[in-house]
Amino acid sequence: MQIRRAALALIVAGTLAACGGAPSSPKALSLDRSKTEFEQVGIDETRDDVTALVATATRLGAQLAARDTRAASTAVSPWSVLSLLGMLRAGAEGETAAQLDGAGLGAAKDLPRAMAALTGQTAQWAGDPGTVPATSPPASPLFQSQVALLTAKEPEDRRVRPAYLDALSASYGTGVYPVDFRQDVGEPLGEWVAVNTGSTLTSAPLKTGSDTRLAAVSTAYLAAAWRFPFDAARTRPSPFTAADGAVVDPPTLRGTVPARVAAGEGFSALQLDYGTTLALQIVLPAPGTPVADAASEGRFTAARIALAAAPSVPHEVSLPKWRSTSWTPLVDPLRDAGLTGLFAGPGLDGIAPGSPTVADARAAAVFTVGEKGTASDTATATAPETDPGPAPFAVDRAFAYAVVDTATGLPLIMGTVDRPGS
Description:
It is built from 11 helices and 18 strands. Helix 2 (47-65) packs across helix 3 (78-89) and helix 5 crosses helix 6 (162-172). Strands 6, 9, 10, 11, 12, 16, 17 and 18 form an 8-stranded mixed sheet that branches. Strands 3, 4, 5, 13, 14 and 15 form a 6-stranded mixed sheet that branches. The chain is of the alpha+beta class. It is globular and about 70 Å long. Helices cover 26% and strands 27% of the residues.
């Protein structure tokens, strides 16, 4: 399948053309959106609520990042998942609403305004992943996060409520994608995913059927150059201990670069800056400590707070290169978190009459670490070997990581790395 680079404009306009297929397949995913304008809300206007939602996003990310213990690496976007849950909360009532509030959305006194503020904050990095050269991440970060809420085309008395579309437009700047679930939605949805992940992923493993009324897919893609890039001439294999004790030798970045370093009970942490306010934070568990401990909400939060207080000074950093291209199933983790009403009833009557439930929901994330930054595996610098810096920091065993907006603390992507280079 060839993905057209101009396709992102079609998404923004509300229509994405599919690229061929059987005549019975849907020809497009068309966005059904209210004419209500997006509500511009500054972060400082709702700072307490934003802080509460950052904690909720961190908790969600921690629960999802280390869930697949067999993966060489994982990646999930807590922000994308939080956006999906916020969109579902706008259509929830009664028990379903109470469950979502209990899962952390209720910590915000004015959830719609707080989500609008975070939506506006992340929109500053939005762009077309298809424009990013494979070997040259942009100096200004590009973070593309999208949620496709698929709704069944219904008789008029069961269609999505206009008030719900107003709520989505006002707080999230989006709407829903009505589809005929009796037909195969895989091809147009696959192109939607490909456009939003720079053609890294071209399909969506979504399980739907003729009786499906709601399903959801989220995507997250980051491309950003390091503020202080690594020298490719110094990249070489280095020993790295996986969670099961096996030793592998992944290609490892080495360089004396300005970085923040901190330590806490059971972990040490490293921060490498991208442009603007984005940064990669590594949470390295103490020797003998499981990587799941480093990927816990408490460790991510403690690392973020400790790194914010640490100075940025030169360190001799060694960090393995890795790439994560992950599909994360959401139904079971969200059920385990107590959100049963989304999937088995009482459902979401505020979205449409008849209280539809979510048949399936999955989150995609694409994340790469190389010498130049994210979305790059190569670099062209050929500087000679330099002497070690005064303070070494070696990432030489299984670890957890987060890409964080340091202005708000919001985690955009979180995950674990067990066998880099696999």
